[in-house]
From TrEMBL:
<dbReference type="Pfam" id="PF13333">
    <property type="entry name" value="rve_2"/>
</dbReference>
<feature type="domain" description="Integrase catalytic">
    <location>
        <begin position="1"/>
        <end position="69"/>
    </location>
</feature>
<protein>
    <submittedName>
        <fullName>Transposase</fullName>
    </submittedName>
</protein>
<dbReference type="InterPro" id="IPR001584">
    <property type="entry name" value="Integrase_cat-core"/>
</dbReference>
<dbReference type="InterPro" id="IPR012337">
    <property type="entry name" value="RNaseH-like_sf"/>
</dbReference>
<dbReference type="InterPro" id="IPR050900">
    <property type="entry name" value="Transposase_IS3/IS150/IS904"/>
</dbReference>
């Protein structure tokens, strides 16, 4: 995240946090800090490497970046 009040840089992070809460947090019983930390780290790995997005042509963010860099080369 960038400096305070910079909405252009903060909007992708706010979107990510909203998706994270929807997909892994709401409706789940409370956990310890350590369990929550472990679950968030696992979710970030899932989000970046496995979760496909229609906006990215059905690829995960990492797959899309690799594909785009191959096209540019």
């Amino acid at each position: 995240m960038s400096r305070k009040g910079n909405c252009i840089d903060n909007s992708p992070m706010e979107s990510f946090f909203g998706i994270l809460k929807q997909e892994m947090y709401y409706g789940v019983p409370l956990r310890t800090y350590e369990e929550l930390k472990k679950d968030i780290e696992a979710y970030i790995q899932y989000y970046n490497n496995k979760r496909i997005k229609q906006k990215l042509a059905g690829m995960s963010p990492v797959q899309y970046r690799l594909h785009a860099s191959q096209l540019a080369a």
